[in-house]
Known about the structure:
By secondary structure, the protein is an alpha+beta fold. Helix content is about 35%, strand content about 30%. It is elongated, with a radius of gyration of 18 Å. The N and C termini lie far apart (about 40 Å). The relative contact order is 0.10.
Amino acid sequence: TELVTYSNRPVEQLSGGERQRAFLALALAQAPQVLLLDEPTTYLDLRYQLELLELLKHLNQHQNIAIITVLHDVNLAARYSDRLALLKAGQLYHLGVPTDVLTPKNLAAIFGIDATILQTPVGLQVCPLNPIKLEVGNRIEN
């Protein structure tokens, strides 16, 4: 997690991103078989988001650690996940591989957006186009 240079600093003096990485280091020090992570990329700059997710991918593939992660960034989720779960109102809406889960229909139902899905060299990318106009009563809202 690249925190050796901060080893003498109290955790209260670390930035939000440094704290995220420190908590992951603590979890990894316990040699877990499963990691359950809630928004592990929060507070991280883009570089560190990618580095963290690459590390998790490596741990999964080479050390057989099962990793369950909550991510709200659907593009990062699509890039780094073998399987995705979409929730709607706290209930499982769709579970499967990214190509089956991230569809324009599912994104409209969950996020209220028109979107197109692009295949890129690093995987699927969701490109939001417009919010869907919802009819509420007799008026239309975005």
